[in-house]
Amino acid sequence: MNKRWAVRDNADDEEVRNLAAALSIDPVLSTLLIHRGIKSYDEARLFFRPDNRHLHDPFLMAGMEQAILRIEAAMAAGEKILIYGDYDVDGTTAVSLVYSFFRKYYDKLEYYIPDRYLEGYGISTKGIDYAAEHDFKLIIALDCGIKSVDKIAYANTKGVDFIICDHHLPGDELPAAAAILDPKQLHCNYPYKELSGCGIGFKLIQAYAEKNDIPFSEVDCYLDLVAISIACDIVHITGENRVLAHMGLQKINNNPCMGVKTLMEVAGRGNYYTISDVVFLLGPRINAAGRIDDAKHAVELLIASEGNIAKEKSELINVRNTERKGHDLSITDEALGMIDRDEMLISKKSTVLFNENWHKGVIGIVASRLTEKYYRPTIVLTRSNGHVAGSARSVLGYDLYEALCGCSDLLIQFGGHKYAAGLTMLPENVEAFVARFEEVVSATIKPEQLIQQIQIDAELRLSQVEPKFFRILNQFAPFGPENMAPVFISKNVYVSGYAGLVGSNHIKMTVMQDDSAIFDCIAFNQGEYLPQLLKDMPFDMCYTIEENVWKERRTIQLNVKGIRFGGSL
Fold it and tell me: Cα 160–124–224 angle (5° rounding)?
């Protein structure tokens, strides 16, 4: 698929020069900082040296005082407390963090993860009934609950209080909970709004520790879980999240908790994890527990204090991940075949596919793969508990949630955000929904949004890529949304020495530009360009710069995102 190359607007020349001089760095690096809103030496120092001193006071979050008072009252009265969370990575890491912390100080504590298939996302009636029947007086809900107005009202009739710790956008009405922690609620002046669900849980235990003179070392030992949640929930890696992710990655790479350590071992990598490694190696395994079996296995792994239990759970989760891959690949192949055989589907601006036999636990992954392939808003539907359930994914710049609002009369419920959502409908509405969704998307999507874009940060000469440049560039990490690994463009480069195919469709080559050093390059899924990559034939390429480790030898490698011949953007 052809991709649009879009180069960012230049930063102000004087600002670039002044910051480069103040920091003694290449102007390209100061340009990258200015694009991130960093314009002074002091701001750059905070950016490059994140630590726990840069974390915000948790009591700045609306509802925190009430939450801590309610927890302390429950402990003083000997009430049973239930830690409740969603079945995805963010929810299970949040439950593991809050449960592990509080069980060191209180023993009337349990946790609860709703069943993906029987209860669905968020607060469930079954979960509230379980709490009431087992005499739990307080539920701490993590990564869910901000829109559960009816469920919290029901819990109140049962004598069960809720503390809601959520990071999703609230609706017009807030639940009648004992306390609500959500930086996105109106009148919350917390300085950072993009925490993960597990991040909100971290602020809760940070506040409790401060109030009760518990050392910070009893809190920051859970930062590996916070980093996993930040990476896998695709929240912004800016501000406080970047500090938490930075510290959490240090914990993962130096001293992870027992559950994370054994999971890293079964994933085949012992240390040196980046955010990307967490997303692709740890996240799918944690998620697989809830997709294929029971998400409680993920919590049991992450709270494990004994090596034999952690090993048993990590191996079980690894098996479930292998099963998940099998479902994922077979359903993806089936879905691709449905599209390839149908000219009408190919010509549409949206994709909606339904098969009542598809595994509900992987339809979100399949929707993501179809979006990558055809690059348009995509929904994958299957049968679930007498209804039709779906997962939706969008393309850059297109608001999927708004599109679903235009179909709301055909849906039982839906929720999510701009780029990902879940939905449920009656089986008899599927045909009408397919037509309506295509109608809404066709009327609202811009033609350029249907062409995948490579966002290029700056032009770079290969001679600028030297050890100091790379060392400073590495300090921009951890990378993720709103702080992505910079993409550079270099023009009139050429193959110097070698270009060949590796794997099924990847190019490995060495390139140089004028009198630069020779750089190793990898271009994934771009094998079609190989016949044109002749020695001394100039071309333009955009790429990220990364470190390649092979048998303990570390070299700079360019990860090529796009190749163009002829010199036009």
Answer: 90
